[in-house]
Design goal:
Oligomer: single chain
Radius of gyration: 19 Å
Number of strands: 2
């Protein structure tokens, strides 16, 4: 039997590699666009790149830290079996 806190921590660490790898590769591809302010053909691209990078960092933070906190707040004192059924 697993408690909800253990399940929340297990689920947040399960997808951590995929989330971090996706965020890091996206940010590294947007850095050149964000830095080249005056060399860019379209100056709006620098602002768009910065906004996208901020959104990626915010969503990564929310996905890693806030999700399991919200799960533990809404579902209290419940246990689940390994096959997902509530006991």
């Amino acid at each position: 039997m697993l408690k909800i806190k253990e399940l929340a921590i297990q689920s947040s660490t399960c997808c951590l590699n995929a989330i971090l790898l996706t965020t890091i590769t996206d940010i590294f591809t947007l850095i050149p666009m964000a830095i080249k302010r005056y060399q860019s053909l379209y100056p709006i691209q620098t602002y768009r790149a910065k906004v996208i990078m901020g959104g990626l960092l915010t969503s990564t933070f929310l996905n890693i830290y806030i999700n399991h906190v919200v799960y533990t707040l809404f579902i209290k004192n419940e246990t689940f079996s390994n096959n997902g059924n509530q006991d």
